[in-house]
Amino acid sequence: MTDRVLEIDRISKRYGRVTALQEMTFSVRAGEMFGFVGSNGAGKTTTMRIALGVLAADSGEVRWNGSPLDLTTRRRIGYMPEERGLYPKMKVAEQLAYLGELHGMSAADAQAAAARWTERLGLTERRDEEVQKLSLGNQQRVQLAAALVHDPEVLILDEPFSGLDPVAVDVMSAVLREKCDSGVPVVFSSHQLDLVQRLCDRVGIVRSGRMVASGSVTELRDQGPVTLVVDAPDAAPGWAADVPGAQVVSVDGSRTTLQLDEDADDQAVLKAALTTGPVREFSRHRPSLTELFRNVVTEEATE
Predict the structure, then answer these.
(1) Coil, helix or strand for 297?
(2) Core-most of 37, 80, 128, 244, by most CB within 10 Å?
(3) Where along the sequence do coiled-coil regions lie (predicted)?
(4) The pTM is what?
(5) E strand or H helix at 26
(6) CATH (residue range 5-221)
């Protein structure tokens, strides 16, 4: 592996009889944004906590720059936990400077970084307020500033967009992209799959503690089932029933959505549609990340 790569290598973790992770494996390169998605309890937070050293893995290894993470290198990670870890009665700027010093910054550098990030995240007017008196969205911004204040080499964020309004989402998205563009690997989990699809270079879908799919959004969508949308205004109900390898997913007026088996012939569908009269639309549909995720969850429920 090349330098500046965060590697999660065959991490496993059990709690009694419950298997939380089963050889979880993925890597995130410098300047890459990796979206980590899965149902509640799939293993995302456990993976992040092991990477941070908050939990110990039963087996496997976490590496940065080709070497196992230790206490020193973990101090170079910016972490945003899902359960927010701020001191509620501490003032915003004071808290950020304090956290910077905990990561080894001088007092002057920590104060300067606190000022810089409060301004960048729209918190300048809240610098001297206690965290507990802020709105939940502003507390979220402070939590992100806490992850960034020490200029980390890696960012690991657990549900960073939860509870944010659209303006705050845009601000946080821009900050994360800036960090990626500067060469920082960014890993974040989120249930907001439209954001993951829009922001991430690669995505990993987790199910029952395993990575079941990983790749760019385009790659994952190309691996999904082929869906056709056919608009045949004169077609009678059931016109596609005899097309080999085609299953009707939905009918909306004259528009029929079909899912094709891997070896099915889309031209056979077109031929069947044309026998009914004119065809106003015949298009392939690539599944969205949300649809891919829904398929994974459905597979899990039926296993």
Answers:
(1) helix
(2) 37
(3) none
(4) 0.81
(5) strand 18-29
(6) 3.40.50.300
